[in-house]
Amino acid sequence: MAAPLELTCWGGGWGLPSVHSESLVVMAYAKFSGAPLKVNVIDNTWRGSRGDVPILTTEDNIVSQPAKILNFLRKQKYNADYELSAKQGADTLAYIALIEEKLLPAVLHTFWVESDNYFTVTKPWFASRIPFPLSLILPGRMSKGALNRILLTRGEPPLYHLREVEAQIYRDAKECLNLLSNRLGTSQFFFGDTPSTLDAYVFGFLAPLYKVRFPKVQLQKHLKQLSNLCRFCDDILNSYFRLSLGDG
Amino acid sequence: MSLVAEAFVSQIAAAEPWPENATLYQQLKGEQILLSDNAASLAVQAFLQMCNLPIKVVCRANAEYMSPSGKVPFIHVGNQVVSELGPIVQFVKAKGHSLSDGLDEVQKAEMKAYMELVNNMLLTAELYLQWCDETTVGEITHARYGSPYPWPLNHILAYQKQWEVKRKMKAIGWGNKTLDQVLEDVDQCCQALSQRLGTQPYFFNKQPTELDALVFGHLYTILTTQLTNDELSEKVKNYSNLLAFCRRIEQHYFEDRGKGSSSIRSS
């Protein structure tokens, strides 16, 4: 258990420890469960891998994908959910599914597909952190992957047209945000006073949407109207990430 | 459908009451329909039974192509055609029937979240098993999917559909999963459903909602469909309250109305 846990992930900006949702989920969970993580931010040297980020490395294991990483941390006794009842554990799975089905397509669209956002914000940010000449290829590939995922899961065969699904995915995302806001109500975290896996997931997906400055901001505007979700993100940033931000 | 068109359709839907000759279309029951489509169709039938709305089930080989969204089942009511459980629930609500009106905001959020869980895990696992597991594909799926069509159309359609599903699996990150991992996800999902159901008769205590219809559709189909092995249904059978739940809905909404289909074997 004393083996150092190293997390490779995308770096931060706009007040966030990371702008990549999945990396943020893992970082938040590690803070909540007290796991000592050494964070290696991807930069534009050739050190480290870039695919399938976030990646957790220990002495004998390499684990990728947030769900698997969280499972691994739980097995290492870093468990943020031990106070939850069985029903709350079930609710966690259900809400995570809701976020992945309803919110994720619109977040992907805002970051990677919406051309104003992609070309002015996302692409330059990621390209500056990837070594040349990979920086010419990788952001484009990530963008295409995001578009693919949106069309395959939400588009209807055989047309696969983006315009038809755009309105629908934003509508679903706004509804999902409303549902999350209703569920959170006035509590500090989703299940009482201590943060759990669900809080990590919600924070991971909402914080970049909340903080990153985009030209086209319809979803962000909707989020800012839900003050309890904004307060939720700010609270976590202030309590768990303030000290580490000072280290850059 | 654009937002304006949808609002227009709701207006029209609200104007007329539910007709007697409403029909539900699905693929051929005996030879063609697959596990995931059967589950979706059963969920819609259960939902309409719970709302007390009469519906006739019609089986057509080309149901998938008739559907406006390409997915089965779809219902033909008056002069409108609506497909998939979500839009059908909205459509029925516009006509004034709803199962979830009595829920408060937090419960509605929970209901939607659990419905997404079923779609995310159970439905995806069913699709994986049907189209990405080589044994099942070879022995069951290919033969069934193309059965109403002559050679070589049956092979072409089956391969095309398989390619489509595999693309989707890859996009959502299930492309590299092994069958065991998928079965474990199914187990996790059933565990969550079982814990949420607890000892209650339905998910939101006394009255069934669309969530109960959806869960029933999937679990009942998994339990009663003959696949190459029993691993999938074994995962569900581990949870006795889910079995009791399925039996209860079957007895209450299907057998009582004289529509007994193959009932659940208890083993």
TrEMBL record, chain A:
For this record, the Gene Ontology CC terms, alphabetical, are:
SAM complex
Domain Metaxin glutathione S-transferase per the UniProt entry, residue ranges: 173-236
Which keywords appear in this protein's UniProt record, sorted alphabetically? Membrane, Mitochondrion, Mitochondrion outer membrane, Protein transport, Transport
Query: According to the entry, what is the taxonomic lineage of the organism?
Result: Eukaryota, Metazoa, Chordata, Craniata, Vertebrata
Q: Which family does it belong to?
A: Belongs to the metaxin family.
* Protein location: Mitochondrion outer membrane
Protein name, per record: Metaxin
Q: Output the GO biological process annotations, alphabetical, semicolon-separated.
A: mitochondrion organization; protein transport
Name its species.
Ailuropoda melanoleuca
UniProt-listed SUPFAM superfamilies: GST C-terminal domain-like (SSF47616)
Chief subcellular location equals mitochondrion
Mitochondrial outer membrane transport complex Sam37/metaxin N-terminal domain mapped to chain residues: 23-142
- What InterPro entries is this protein classified in? Glutathione-S-Trfase_C_sf, Glutathione_S-Trfase, Metaxin1/3, Metaxin_GST, Mito_Protein_Transport_Metaxin, Sam37/metaxin_N
Automatic annotation (TrEMBL), chain B:
Task: List, alphabetically, the CDD domains matched.
Answer: GST_C_Metaxin2 (cd03211), GST_N_Metaxin2 (cd03079)
One family name in Pfam for this protein: Tom37
Q: Where is the Mitochondrial outer membrane transport complex Sam37/metaxin N-terminal domain?
A: 41-162
Q: Name one GO biological process term.
A: protein transport
Assign the protein's first listed, main location to one coarse class: mitochondrion
Domain called Metaxin glutathione S-transferase: residue spans = 187-249
SUPFAM superfamilies named among the record's database cross-references: GST C-terminal domain-like
Known Gene3D superfamilies for this protein? 1.20.1050.10
Instruction: List the keywords (alphabetical).
Output: Acetylation, Membrane, Mitochondrion, Mitochondrion outer membrane, Protein transport, Transport
Reading the lineage from the top rank, the first entry is Eukaryota
InterPro entries, from UniProt? Answer: Glutathione-S-Trfase_C_sf, Glutathione_S-Trfase, Metaxin_GST, Mito_Protein_Transport_Metaxin, Sam37/metaxin_N
Question: What compartments host this protein?
Answer: Mitochondrion outer membrane
Briefly state the protein's biological role: Involved in transport of proteins into the mitochondrion.
Instruction: Report quaternary structure and partners.
Output: Interacts with MTX1/metaxin-1. Associates with the mitochondrial contact site and cristae organizing system (MICOS) complex, composed of at least MICOS10/MIC10, CHCHD3/MIC19, CHCHD6/MIC25, APOOL/MIC27, IMMT/MIC60, APOO/MIC23/MIC26 and QIL1/MIC13. This complex was also known under the names MINOS or MitOS complex. The MICOS complex associates with mitochondrial outer membrane proteins SAMM50, MTX1 and MTX2 (together described as components of the mitochondrial outer membrane sorting assembly machinery (SAM) complex) and DNAJC11, mitochondrial inner membrane protein TMEM11 and with HSPA9.
Protein name, as recorded = Metaxin-2
Q: Which gene encodes it?
A: MTX2
